[in-house]
Every structure is written in C-alpha cells, then in structure tokens.
Amino acid sequence: MKAVINGLVLSLASIGAFAQSLDERLVMATESIDIKEIVQIPIRNLKAVESEGQILYMSDNGRYVLVGQIYDIWTRKTLDTMDQIRRSTTHLSFKDMNMPIEELNTVSVGQGQSKVVAFVDPKCESCHVLIKQAQGMSDDFTFQFVFVPALGESSVNQVKHISCTPDKQGVADAVLKNHVDRLAVPQDCDLKVFNTTLVAADLMGINGVPFIVAPNGEILRGLPNDLKSWLQERG
After folding, report:
1. Are 56 and 67 in contact (CB under 8 A)?
2. Beta bridge mates, 219
3. Which of 82, 88, 83 is nearest to 50 (CA)?
4. Reported pTM
5. 3-class SS of residue 27
6. DSSP 3-state of 209
7. Tens digit of each residue's pLDDT (9 = 90 or more) over 93-140
8. Number of continuous H segments (helices) and E segments (strands) in the chain
9. Which of 196, 208, 223 is nearest to 150 (CA)?
10. At what angle do helices 2-11 and 22-30 cross, to 10 degrees?
11. Is 222 left (phi over 0), alpha (psi -120 to 50) or beta?
C-alpha cells in the first residue's frame, strides 16, 4: 500500500502530470508495482461513518463497507478523524496539491492581499456576476479566474481564445461584454495550458461553475448571497 501511495504522490508532483490522461497517470503510479489482477468495484460515492469509536467507509448503496486507513493524495496526509475527513471534502489547497494556479488558464483581477480562486465559464451568467463583483473588490482581494468550458461545446472556442490571448488584462471586460472572440490571439497558439486546465478541473471534480475557493481554502459551488462578507469570514 505504501508503494501505491508513493507512486500516486509522485504522479501529482508536477503540473505536467495533470496534462496526462487519467489512465496514463494511473499507469505511471502503479507501473513499479507487481499487480496480479484488478477488479472494478461499482462505488460512485463513499461515505465516512463513525461508529463505536471506529471510522468505516460505506458505499452509497450500503453494499460495501471498508475498514482501514484513508489517505488524501492531494495533501499527502492520512485522515484519522471525522473533522479531517470533512475538511478534505470542503477545502482545497493548491499549494498542497503542488498545482500552480498561475500555470492554468488563469486571469487575475485585483491586487488585494487575500487570494480567491474561481473556476468560471465565459458564457455563464452567474460567472459574469462574480467577475463584476470581483472588479468592485479589487483593493481587498486578488481573484484568480480559471476559465473552463463547463457549459459544453459552445464555450470551448472562447475558452481556447482566452488561453491563447496575450492580452490577459482585457479578458475580464471582454467576457462581460461578450467580446471574447475579439481578443487578439497568435495563429500558432499552443493549447497546452488549455488542455492542462481541463485535466486539472476534471481531477478536482469541478462539474459546475462558478466554483469558488476562499482564501482559507473553503469551497463553494455557486454564488453566495453576500460575496464580500462570505470571503471576509474565510480570510
């Protein structure tokens, strides 16, 4: 088991690993281990259950129960208490994941000391609201908007455009005005950043936008009623 964990940690050791397919990363993580057989177990969700001083892990339909220690590959730590498990499901630490947000399809807004990461789609109306609010809080926060095509094929070209343009300062206004296609882009754009961002978002389970990570790492899917207060409470 330790060899498997070490292999998985190594597979996440650099941002380059995120640009590979899931199958490739799994092969890298296990290629040095003598595996006799693999059986896929149909578990979509795993629930942690505390009973009689012991933590058990139960499948969503209650059929399978796992007993033992769980390890968070992203933070490289064992999760020994319910509080630790709960935190691992409600917080993200890009530093622990060794994922430089600046190397993804990222555009910064603001210059405040508190940093906020938000995954957004250029065609998402709620994301437009978030970007507008961010522009009004530029003295207090630095928002790092990571653009992904969460709304499907209709967003792919615009997200590629944002990835390619050297005019990062103009992206936020272009998104709000629906002028993304007018941003200047080189003819021979390298889509490595675009592809790496897709893999990273998939790895983190980001299947909807906006997806906000507060300064303390707490995550929120959607928009809070009062964004500034929500962020200040989690500074």
Report:
1. yes
2. 213
3. 82
4. 0.81
5. helix
6. coil
7. 988 888 889 999 999 999 999 999 999 999 999 999 999 999 999 999
8. 8, 10
9. 208
10. 140
11. left
Q: What is the predicted pLDDT for the residue at 149?
A: 96
Write out the E strands in the chain.
Answer: 46-51, 54-59, 65-67, 70-72, 77-79, 106-109, 114-120, 141-147, 211-213, 219-221
Burial class of residue 175, CB neighbours in 10 A (0-12, 13-18, 19+): buried
Sequence letter at residue 45:
N
Mean pLDDT in residue range 71-91: 91
Q: Are 100 and 126 spatial neighbours (Cβ–Cβ below 8 Å)?
A: no
CA atoms of 218 and 52, how far apart (whole Å): 29
Q: Which of 153, 159, 186, 157 is closest to 171 using CA atoms?
A: 159
Helix 192-203 vs helix 153-164: crossing angle, to nearest 10: 120
The label of the residue with tokens 């058990």 reads 56
More confident residue, 153 or 209: 209
pLDDT at residue 6 tops 90: no
Q: Length of the chain in residues, anyone?
A: 235
Peptide bond into 210 cis (omega under 30): yes
